[in-house]
Design brief:
single chain; mainly alpha
Length: about 80
């Protein structure tokens, strides 16, 4: 089972990958589902189980509802990893 720090790191990596892609293609290409797709693919590559992936995806839905894009970017920009 993943620890909270591991999950947060993976979410940050997925967000960064999506943000970089959105810069290349324009923001109209970006969506919450794309972010969750990146997250699921990253976790699958780290051999996370389907239950862990579902828990993270469910948490992401709630975070998308509670946190603005600007707040998420500011949070990411302050991370050490």
């Amino acid at each position: 089972m993943l620890h909270k720090d591991d999950i947060e790191k993976r979410l940050a990596e997925a967000y960064k990958a999506g943000y970089e892609q959105s810069s290349i293609f324009g923001f109209h290409e970006w969506s919450n589902n794309a972010a969750m797709g990146y997250t699921a693919m990253a976790m699958e590559r780290l051999e996370s189980g389907s239950i862990e992936i579902q828990r993270v995806i469910n948490k992401m839905y709630r975070v998308f509802d509670e946190v603005s894009v600007l707040e998420a970017k500011a949070h990411y920009d302050c991370l050490d990893y």
